[in-house]
Amino acid sequence: MGSVADLGDAQAVIVGVPMDYTVSYRPGSRFGPEAVRSVSVALETYSPEQDDDLERIKCCDLGDLELPFGNVATSLKRIEETARELAGTGKFPLFIGGEHLITYALVKGVLPFYPDLAVVHFDAHADLRREYMGEELSHATVMRHVVEMVGAGNLYQLGIRSGTREEFAAARQVARIYPGQVLEPLAEVLEEVGTRPVYLTLDIDVVDPAFAPGTGTPEPGGCTAREILQAVRTLGRARVVAMDLVEIAPDHDLSGRTALLGAKIIREALLAYV
User: Fold this and answer.
1) CATH number at residue 183
2) Using CA atoms, how far apart are residues 33 and 35, in angstroms rounded to an integer?
3) How many distinct structural domains can be found in the chain?
């Protein structure tokens, strides 16, 4: 939707990251990037809420990364290298997953260019475990790795409504967590991050499965599609420098509405941040 082929002139770059090797419940998010692209043709490039159009932005879709299936370490290294390369161009990179573990590699790639980076995390799950079933690298441990990179107090977790007792205790120590809240905390978050660079990671399961059933670990009690779209637009008041959208698993949603919501989130994000 609205993408062009010329990377040199692009202001924003979209990359698919089809990795879902450590999922704990339902696999299939590696098909998320292509599903989002396919349904995006159903949307207009114009956003009435922002009175803006993707025709204003030169956005290049580079397609999906080629990743060695099942090889976590090599895949993460390739993802990190791609993020570092794109962050160095000054263009706005937007990554479509794939499972949430990709955020570890993406933040690692972006961080050298923005050492004072803050991370805003929309999710149903805290993802702060030290290990999951013996694995330290998992979509259930990803934000533990992220906060170790960016430092305590620089992770903002919104919409969280699932996790272990230990994860919630950890979040109160190392992050700013707003359990179950998506829109309400944004004014406070925006005031705290100020003009610092922000990395946004958005797990689609922050949205209630009534609106987004196509995900690996759906969790009832989430926000509405309207609320997450409004939250994405509101973050346009911050200095968002990179973003990922993860955990869309289209095979678990025959209606296609999860991928369609993902495409609309991307449209609103590009218009708000570029």
Assistant:
1) 3.40.800.10
2) 5
3) 1
Q: Which residues contact 31 (CB under 8 A, 6 or more apart)?
A: 18, 249, 250, 251
CB atoms within 10 A of CB 6: 8
Mean pLDDT in residue range 1-5: 81
pLDDT in tens, 191-207: 999 999 999 999 999 99
pLDDT tens-digit map of 43-93: 999 999 999 999 999 999 999 999 999 999 999 999 999 999 999 999 999
Question: Closest Cα partner for 240 from 120, 99, 122?
Answer: 120
180 lies in which domain range? 3-273
Cα–Cα distance between 234 and 272 in angstroms, integer? 8
